[in-house]
């Protein structure tokens, strides 16, 4: 801890957590601060919404969620420190898009999301009340990723909207109170200061580096690794990195409610997490495009919200870890699911370790070029939705939106979420526009669905058969 005098007041400041350092180093690598913007929208079909009451609920949300009042400052050595301001009494502007074409309104909010928020002591989020065509009213929110992640954002939306229902409708209970961000922060910093568990986790990740060097796998028919080998004159290169152009966009595919439920039912009956099913499907597609390569590594985004305090304390807790599996063609789909699940369970037990530190170990052990990776894609599965956090909101039609910040450091990020309307699955592909074509994304999604449903229809099919029939 360190004390700073800011605007005449003495504040208690804390160093960054490992999750925050991941974001800090990525933005330092590209110098594009909009990379850390998360833009989202949540809108209810409720033209009679009480705007003043909604503003009050948002302001109460600011007060209750400590990480919404998080600020960053820099010491004389250039290191970032975080602290809380006691209140945030900014006005909540109202933007009326009700006479716009709806897609034009979303494009405008997408533009807002590309505007950087600088970590210079000012607010690291923006909220606007939005009116859309068709009587929809809701919120646009942009947050800095060093202060909130997707789980925290959903909790904030849930708190504000449930609080609104509590204040404006009879017999609606008050929402569950958030937990303290500072208390959880102190636990995380204590873990990172050489705790026994941290040392166990470090030993686990160092053990994984005794395996042979991984091999980059591609997400399309184009062999980007071979192109890089030829360009660098190094045919032994096994990791890959992207060009300097990180301009990005998002393409979304919606799987209908009925087939989404079939996948959910399969997971329930076989006691397999949806994230494991998605991971197996994705790595199977990569294996197909890599000519049957069996050793596949996919970057896995781990939310680290196992305890109630972690779930309700806001902040950013995502760590990114490689999930590497070697699955032979004669392995059945059911057996492959068990392999991926065992690997993920093992990974989750040690996910609190600093991933940036581990990346440095990877470079040291394998001699891979700095900034390169063995994973072409990061997979995020977001199981939580507002449909599961509120008993009141589902009675009103509503929709949500995720807005691209315009940049991405990896070829592609695949984020799978549940839609609020029918709990169907939405597949969000954020991709580098000048490195990845829309045709590649479309084929990736097509083969992903083929791989998953071929396995779900008959779990005794082998991976080799699925690869052949895809």
| String of helices and strands | EEHEHEEEHEEHHHHEHHEHEHHEEEEHH
| Rg from Cα | 23 Å
Q: Summarize model confidence as the mean pLDDT.
A: 93
Globally, the shape reads globular
Poorly predicted runs are none
Structural class: alpha+beta
- Main sheet specs: 6 strands, mixed
Strand order of the largest sheet: 9-15-14-12-10-11
How much β-strand is present in the residues?
15-25%
Intertermini distance:
55 Å
**Strand count:** 15
Per DSSP, the total helix count is 14
How much helicity do the residues have? 25-40%
Describe this structure in words.
By secondary structure, this protein is of the alpha+beta class. The protein contains 14 helices and 15 strands. β7 and β8 form a beta hairpin. The termini are far apart. The model has no long low-confidence stretch (mean pLDDT 93).
Topology (elements, then pairings):
Elements: E1 2-6, E2 9-15, H1 18-30, E3 37-45, H2 51-64, E4 70-74, E5 80-84, E6 94-96, H3 102-113, E7 125-132, E8 136-144, H4 150-168, H5 181-192, H6 196-208, H7 224-232, E9 248-254, H8 257-270, H9 274-289, E10 295-302, H10 308-312, E11 319-326, H11 333-349, H12 355-366, E12 377-382, E13 398-403, E14 412-418, E15 425-432, H13 438-457, H14 463-469
Parallel strand pairs: 6-7, 10-12, 12-14
Antiparallel strand pairs: 1-2, 2-5, 3-8, 3-13, 4-5, 7-8, 9-15, 10-11, 14-15
Question: Could you write a compact summary of the structure shown?
Answer:
The chain has helices at residues 18-30, 51-64, 102-113, 150-168, 181-192, 196-208, 224-232, 257-270, 274-289, 308-312, 333-349, 355-366, 438-457, 463-469; strands at residues 2-6, 9-15, 37-45, 70-74, 80-84, 94-96, 125-132, 136-144, 248-254, 295-302, 319-326, 377-382, 398-403, 412-418, 425-432. By secondary structure, it is α+β, with helices and mostly antiparallel strands.
């Amino acid at each position: 801890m360190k004390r700073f005098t800011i605007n005449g007041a003495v504040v208690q400041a804390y160093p960054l957590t490992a999750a925050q350092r991941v974001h800090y180093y990525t933005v330092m690598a590209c110098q594009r601060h909009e990379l850390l913007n998360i833009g989202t929208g949540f809108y209810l079909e409720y033209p009679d919404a009480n705007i003043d009451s909604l503003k009050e609920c948002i302001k109460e949300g600011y007060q209750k969620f400590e990480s919404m009042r998080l600020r960053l400052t820099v010491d004389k050595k250039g290191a970032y420190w975080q602290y809380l301001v006691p209140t945030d009494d900014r006005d909540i502007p109202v933007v009326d898009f009700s006479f716009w074409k709806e897609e034009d309104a979303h494009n405008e909010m997408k533009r807002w999301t590309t505007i950087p928020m600088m970590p210079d002591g000012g607010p690291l989020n923006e909220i606007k009340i939005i009116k859309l065509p068709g009587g929809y009213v809701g919120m646009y929110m942009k947050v800095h990723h060093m202060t909130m992640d997707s789980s925290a954002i959903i909790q904030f939306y849930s708190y504000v909207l449930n609080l609104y229902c509590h204040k404006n409708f009879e017999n609606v209970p008050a929402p569950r109170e958030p937990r303290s961000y500072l208390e959880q922060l102190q636990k995380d910093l204590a873990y990172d200061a050489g705790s026994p568990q941290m040392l166990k986790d470090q030993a686990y990740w160092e053990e994984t580096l005794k395996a042979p060097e991984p091999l980059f796998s591609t997400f399309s028919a184009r062999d980007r690794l071979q192109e890089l080998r030829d360009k660098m004159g190094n045919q032994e290169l096994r990791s890959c990195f992207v060009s300097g152009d990180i301009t990005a966009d998002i393409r979304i595919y919606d799987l209908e409610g009925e087939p989404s439920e079939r996948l959910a039912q399969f997971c329930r009956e076989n006691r397999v997490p949806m994230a494991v099913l998605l991971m197996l499907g994705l790595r199977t597609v990569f294996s197909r495009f890599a000519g049957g390569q069996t050793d596949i590594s996919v970057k896995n985004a781990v939310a680290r919200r196992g305890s109630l305090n972690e779930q309700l304390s806001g902040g950013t807790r995502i760590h990114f870890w490689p999930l590497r599996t070697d699955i032979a063609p004669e392995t059945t789909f059911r057996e492959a699911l068990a392999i991926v699940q065992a690997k993920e369970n093992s990974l989750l037990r040690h996910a609190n370790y600093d991933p940036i530190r581990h990346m440095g170990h990877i470079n040291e052990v394998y001699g891979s070029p700095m900034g390169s990776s063995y994973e072409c894609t990061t997979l995020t599965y977001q199981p939580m939705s507002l449909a599961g956090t509120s008993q009141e909101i589902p009675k009103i039609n509503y929709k949500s939106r995720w807005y691209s910040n315009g940049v991405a450091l990896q070829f592609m990020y695949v984020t799978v979420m549940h839609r609020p309307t029918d709990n169907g699955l939405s597949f969000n592909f954020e991709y580098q526009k000048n490195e990845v074509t829309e045709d590649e994304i479309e084929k990736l999604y097509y083969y992903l669905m083929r791989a998953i449903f071929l396995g779900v229809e008959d779990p005794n099919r082998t991976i080799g058969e699925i690869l052949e029939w895809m």
